[in-house]
């Protein structure tokens, strides 16, 4: 019988951090990341083979997804007792290397870090209306602070007129995309049929078969596309709180910090029973995104459009295994 030597706590912490980062949200659950661990460094790389070539030609959504993975790495590392030391885009000659993370000084994770870490695997995207339960203003204030801590701005959209504009833009973008074969094929490519053994893409249990429309209506992406796919639930029509995540700039570093802010907001919200539904179709169409930037975002760059609310529906998601995302 061979007895394996116990892992050093640092080695366990690094492995646990990568394991956790797999659970970050990503556009269409493309999971466009790869991690490598060498010595005391974790490298987070973009897996550009998983980029959405039609919806996301610039790689903005890919970078936001990887930014969410970076925040997850940081949180897990802290929870395992090490202050992360991060360098974003550390090497201009290696554009797909998005960040490196090294364990810094030892730390005692506080209650907030533990609370966020607990939500990493539990948090789920919602794709329908919300229950008639208000989201407390105090929580929204904390989410605004969470986004600011990562260099982005979360703005709850309180004016009904602005909410209407956002809903109309979403309907316009969804209408155009659903008529465009290239967009439709990309959504179909990442929609996971019931019973599929794939470990990426949006599973049919990730959205309800028949959802009640919100008022105003923010259409969902059509992952079921002519199939009778979807889970139960979706009876609640609540709109929730519409919110925009913006950044002052629009380069790769801004997209990565938008992703970090997104995951900080989502984990904090999840800890208080609040989920997010996303409507990012508008942001994939240059003219509509520019209109939104000028008319609603006071010149800041919109990175995510979401509704925040309470749901009692269960949805599920999948992830690739640790060995698939490490090399
Ligand atoms: C940049 C980005 C854009 C997204 N856009 C949408 C969207 O428009 N509609 C949607 O239903 N989900 C959207 N999502 C959520 C992903 O589909 C979701 O994170 C992924 O399927 C994994 O599921 P989970 O979040 O439940 O773990 C987006 C996520 C990211 C990071």
From TrEMBL:
Q: What residue range is the signal peptide? A: none
Which residues does the annotated region (Disordered) include? 194-213
Q: Which PANTHER family match?
A: NAD(P)H NITROREDUCTASE RV3131-RELATED (PTHR23026:SF123), NADPH NITROREDUCTASE (PTHR23026)
> What is the name listed in the Swiss-Prot or TrEMBL entry for this protein?
Nitroreductase domain-containing protein
Q: What species does this protein belong to?
A: Nonomuraea maheshkhaliensis
């Amino acid at each position: 019988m061979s007895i394996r030597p116990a892992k050093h706590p640092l080695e366990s912490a690094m492995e646990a951090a990568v394991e956790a980062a797999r659970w970050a949200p990503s556009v269409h659950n493309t999971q466009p990341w790869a991690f490598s661990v060498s010595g005391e460094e974790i490298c987070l790389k973009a897996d550009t083979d998983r980029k959405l070539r039609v919806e996301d030609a610039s790689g903005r959504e890919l970078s936001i997804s990887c930014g969410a993975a970076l925040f997850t790495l940081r949180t897990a590392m802290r929870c395992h007792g090490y202050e992360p030391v991060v360098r974003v885009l550390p090497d201009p000659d290696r554009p797909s290397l998005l960040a490196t993370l090294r364990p810094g000084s030892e730390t005692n994770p506080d209650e907030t870090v533990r609370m966020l870490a607990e939500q990493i695997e539990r948090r789920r995207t919602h794709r329908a209306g919300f229950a008639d339960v208000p989201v407390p203003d105090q929580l929204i204030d904390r989410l605004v602070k969470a986004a600011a801590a990562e260099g982005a701005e979360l703005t709850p959209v309180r004016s009904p007129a602005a909410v209407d504009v956002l809903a109309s833009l979403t309907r316009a973008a969804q209408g155009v995309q659903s008529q465009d074969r290239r967009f439709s094929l990309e959504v179909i490519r990442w929609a996971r049929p019931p019973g599929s053994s794939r470990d990426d893409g949006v599973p049919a249990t990730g959205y309800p078969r028949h959802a009640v429309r919100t008022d105003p209506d923010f259409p969902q992406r059509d992952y079921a596309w002519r199939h009778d796919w979807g889970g139960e639930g979706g009876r609640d029509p609540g709109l929730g709180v519409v919110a925009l995540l913006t950044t002052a700039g629009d380069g790769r570093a801004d997209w990565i910090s938008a992703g970090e802010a997104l995951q900080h907001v989502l984990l904090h919200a999840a800890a208080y029973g609040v989920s997010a539904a996303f409507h990012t179709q508008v942001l994939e169409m240059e003219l509509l995104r520019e209109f939104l930037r000028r008319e609603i975002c006071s010149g800041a760059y919109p990175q995510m459009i979401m509704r925040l609310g309470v749901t009692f529906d269960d949805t599920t998601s999948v992830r690739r295994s640790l060995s698939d995302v490490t090399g």
